[in-house]
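hi support,

uploading two proteins for the ticket. first:
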Amino acid sequence: MTPDRRSLQDELHQSRPFRSKREECLIAILRTGAVVRRPVVRVVEDRGLSLAQYNVLRILRGAGDAGLPTLAIRERMIEEAAGITRLIDKLEASGHVRRERDATDRRQVFCRITEAGLRLLAELTPAVEAATDAGLAHLDDEHVDALLALLADVREGVR
């Protein structure tokens, strides 16, 4: 550890040592995720969205005119969303998403982003990108690549 870097234990004001290096690593991942997401959360919350709702809008924008069924949206979420129906209810009530039953299978409901939802994403994109870049600006490309590889290894090991 470099002399100018605080330990996670100090950062959390924790007096007892971690049970193991793996526990410390897990907590460091969770803490880091929380820290780097804060600026993005502020941007989307200023527009009345949760980060999960923003994620749904991005997923639906990517799906295009075809849209996606609710469960497919849930599977693509960055974080698990047990209340995906409530998320979509709120987005529909605000006019950013519309739901339609499939003509061939009435049990299936497809969600599509509306023009208002697309406009909102377009308005948010510059500020979200700036917040995203700022959160990792102190890392050079080599460190970003190494971090991405390590995080991919972690996710692969959990599956």
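and the second one:
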Amino acid sequence: MVTGISEGTIGRLMELFDLDTKAIASAVGCTAGTLNRWRRGEQIPSKEYLERLELLDAFLYQVQKSLRSRRRSREWFDARIPALGNRTPRDVFLSANLAHLVVYLRQHERL
């Protein structure tokens, strides 16, 4: 179990947005192998990565709070959004800019 992240966050993100381990690792800025070692408890993330994992957790929390359904979450994740530079949240997520998405979702709590 990865410290600094709620139980099942990675799995829920994979299911919610149809992501694989490589995509989640990209969002955190590590390799898929490293992410899997963290998940199995074989390795402990550094402080820098713990902060990124906490952002991943915050991102999932804000998505669930703001969008409230799987359908709306998926539609939002793949929609071009002017406030994100006309990029999709998926693009921002994969570019390891989780903080930007968390801030955006907090500012737009009811999408």
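thanks. also noticed: Residues 9-107 form one domain.
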